[in-house]
Amino acid sequence: MSRIDDRTSTILLAIVFGLTLLSVLCYTTIFIEPNVPFNPLSPNRATVIAGTVIASDNLARVAAPVVATLDQSYPPTWTTTPTNTPGPTKTATNTRTPTSTRTPTSTVTPTPTRTNTPRPPTVPPPPTNTATPFPFYVSSHTSSNNCADIGLKGVVNGVDGLPKSGITLQYGEENVSGSRFTTTTDSNGRYGALLLPGSNERAARQSHTWYVTVIENGDQASQKFNFTTDPIYATNPSHCRGVDPDDEDEFQDKGCLIDPCKIDDAIQIKTVNWQVRDFQ
After folding, report:
1. Owning domain of residue 162
2. Residue 130 lies in a domain
3. 39, 123, 156, 170: least surrounded by Cβ within 10 Å?
4. Do 167 and 256 fall within a single domain?
């Protein structure tokens, strides 16, 4: 009895498996080729059916007579016959203007004055950035003569007018390579520098142009101040050695030059004072 049940189960499983495989093959074939004969919903068959239905509808429309239905809600009214709009009237012909008489003497038309076409206002240029001034500036400078040496001195004051110590100043001769020296203010804000000793007679017989500026944290902290010193000695011919230099009239009459160091307005010592700028 159990063998019969096993066979029946096997046959049923084989039938179910076969039907499943057949269904899969059928749907796969329809998916690949929708117009197979056993596809009841093939695109070609649906197209033929749709065409048949459309043709039947068109035939029924043609065969059925069209009966106009009268609107019984309101009685028909007669529309009055439109009246013809009269055409535009013809404009009368313009009368001819009689010929103007010729003026015997033609008047000269004055030359028209040229009117200046106003120009659009010019746009002002953008403001230029103003450079920040240096923190130190020259408050005053004076000169004096000296028959010994050529030198530089001065005082550096703060905003409050009190002397500033430890301020570095750089100085030297203009356009001379390597002429760059520094000095520092003392506790009283004073500084001094020997520019040219009088013992250097050859150099002291010429004028020299110098510069001085304030240095702060290794950078220039003021405008460069330039000044020129006069010679200490005058270059005279040999015959001037026998002439008394104290007799200025005779000395100059013989073409001799007085030593610049003995002239009151000669410049051998230059005094340059500095002040810290108040930015408030």
Report:
1. 136-276
2. no
3. 123
4. yes
